[in-house]
Amino acid sequence: MKFDVKKFAELARLKLTQAESEKIEKDLGDVLDHFKELEKVDTKNVKPMTGGTSLSNVFREDKESESHIKGGGDQFPDEKDGYLKAPKVFE
């Protein structure tokens, strides 16, 4: 299988030598060959997995609350209508 490593390198803004390009092309071919081998495995009687664990995330209840931050300290010394006022970045 032939890959256009030079095009991928340009997209990634990488400068590769000819030797590096050839090695990457070979490595990509080896990876895809490995997947071709996996396609040969008979999986007809294998039940699909729904996940590797029975653990689940625990989330806190999403409640509206007052902000615990009062004022902006040194970074945001000014406020307007309850919002912190940032200093100008551009003139």
Order of helices and strands: HHEE
Identify the overall geometry: flat
| Strand numbers in spatial order across the main sheet | 1-2
What fraction of the residues are assigned to beta strands by DSSP?
5-15%
Contiguous low-pLDDT stretches (5 residues minimum) are none
The percentage helix is 25-40%
- The total of helices stands at 2
Q: Could you characterize what this model shows?
A:
A hairpin with a 2-residue loop joins strand 1 and strand 2. The longest helix has 22 residues, at 18-39. The protein has 91 residues and is mostly helical. It has 2 helices and 2 strands, in the order ααββ. Helices cover 32% and strands 7% of the residues. The protein has a domain at 5-39.
